Amino acid sequence: MNFRETAYRSVLDRIAAARAAAGGADPVHLLAVSKTQPAEAVAALAALGQRAFGENYVQEALAKQRELGALAATLEWHLIGPLQSNKCREVARHFDWLQSLDRAKLIAPLSRERPAGHPPLNVLVQVNIDDEASKSGCAPDEVDALAAAVAAAPGLRLRGLMAIPAPAPDLGQRRDAFRRMRALYEALRTAHADVDTLSMGMSDDLELAVAEGATMVRVGTALFGARR
Ligand SMILES: *Cc1c(COP(=O)(O)O)cnc(C)c1O
User: What are the distances in angstroms from CA 42 to CA 34, 62, 64, 81?
Assistant: First the structure.
């Protein structure tokens, strides 16, 4: 096994172990975060069986998709970075998931620009769970209204919630943030049948996130090595 395959197997093993420890029957999905990585790194991971890739910047993602050609169409593309309203058209056309929906004014343009022949764009509402001034995401008490507006929009499908908790050195603090996310998620599930995704946990805390109910972890560094 080369470096890349070793890293991939190791992340899959970490997720499986965390899931087993949590006694979870539901699958936990791996999103490979390929921001700043070249198209060649995406192709290499795809060759090992990885399908879902997360990108932070729309232009970078589109350039990579063009470079990957036919392979790109067989992969699932998630936007996980902040979305500016002037990029809604490109996101609606070239992504399968938007994980960073955090304000109402994005909903109408995304809905309008989703091409008729495409399946609905899967949407996660991003929550600023630690109330950080620098972070995108809506406030916890805005989740219900935003989620309802997404669920009602043609061409969009509400799938759940995403969060990036504050990088607290204290694991207890991070666990608490994950728990508050799970409570929001469980409440949302009772109101919306399509909701099945709680996206939280990254390279250094995916075990904790899975223990607290994550159904999707977003992993970059542990798969691809440090970013430049
Ligand atoms: C970069 C990024 C990740 C991956 O972080 P790693 O620590 O490299 O695993 C996950 N989620 C979001 C939103 C990111 O921007």
Answer: 7, 13, 9, 18
Distances (CA, A) of 222 to 6, 20, 76: 10, 20, 20
- Using a 6 Å cutoff on CB, does residue 219 contact ligand 1? yes
pLDDT per residue as tens digits for the range 112-147: 999 999 999 999 999 999 988 878 999 999 999 999
* Interatomic CA distance for residues 46 and 50, integer angstroms: 5
Question: What CATH number is attached to the domain comprising 35?
Answer: 3.20.20.10
Tell which one of 78, 132, 218, 228 to mutate to probe ligand 1, the residue whose CB is within 8 A of the most ligand atoms: 218
Give residue-wise pLDDT tens across range 61-118.
999 999 999 999 999 999 999 999 999 999 999 999 999 999 999 999 999 999 999 9
Distance of CA 219 from the midpoint of ligand 1 (Å): 6
Nearest-angstrom CA–CA distance, 132 and 153: 29
Structural domain count, the chain: 1
In the DSSP assignment, the letter for residue 138 is B
107: containing domain: 3-224
Ligand 1: residue whose CA is nearest its atom 13: 80
Residue with the two structure tokens 């609905």:
120
